[in-house]
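Before a colleague's protein record goes any further, I have to sign it off. What it holds is a sequence and that sequence's fold in token form. My question to you is simply how this chain folds and whether the tokens agree. Thanks in advance; the entry in question is below:
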Amino acid sequence: MASSSRIAVRELPLFPLPDVVLFPSRPLPLHIFEFRYRIMMNTILESDRRFGVLMVDPVKGTIANVGCCAEIIHYQRLPDDRMKMLTLGQQRFRVLEYIREKPYRVGLVEWIEDQPPTKDLRPLASEVEQLLRDVVRLSAKLTEQNIELPEDVPDLPTELSYWVASNLYGVAAEQQSLLEMRDTAARLERESEILTSTRNHLAARTVLKDTFNQKL
């Protein structure tokens, strides 16, 4: 008997992007200008408006095997056939095999989801959210700017874990690792480690800045 994950298999046009990791429910604006991807998007717009985003490691030149499906929410055609579009992350997937490579990649993919939690994740989610608020507060103090968390930060643990992961900057490999995790608790725990390290670093810089200002 086939497993449920094997049943949920489909062909999906694939869009590899350097250092870009898309997460479920997170927006991704795109500027489509390459000819092959203009062909791809025009084809997608005539079907279900969905395609897969895969992270490319620009140093190694490798394409990740796990990505996130994107749905075109809004698009604008420019005079020279380029396109601006807003997409939204949907389900995660794993590439089983490439069906074709030209004019653009199409893969046979299976959808993947987090395993059901074995414990209440709300305390861990609350801890991550508090660390997030600490980082924002310290960043605002250090840069002397008015920085606030947006109002749309999710409450549910899984959605929060995706939100935090998508807002990590300059660490695409770490984001890819978080995307591939199928344990919400493990993802939140890793994000707690990252945010704790960031908070401690910012706190130390803030103390140095305050000390320096007092001596002036």
Summary: Confidence is low (pLDDT under 50) at residues 1-6. The two ends are 74 Å apart (CA to CA). The chain is about 40% helix and 30% strand. Residues 184-215 form the longest helix (32 residues).
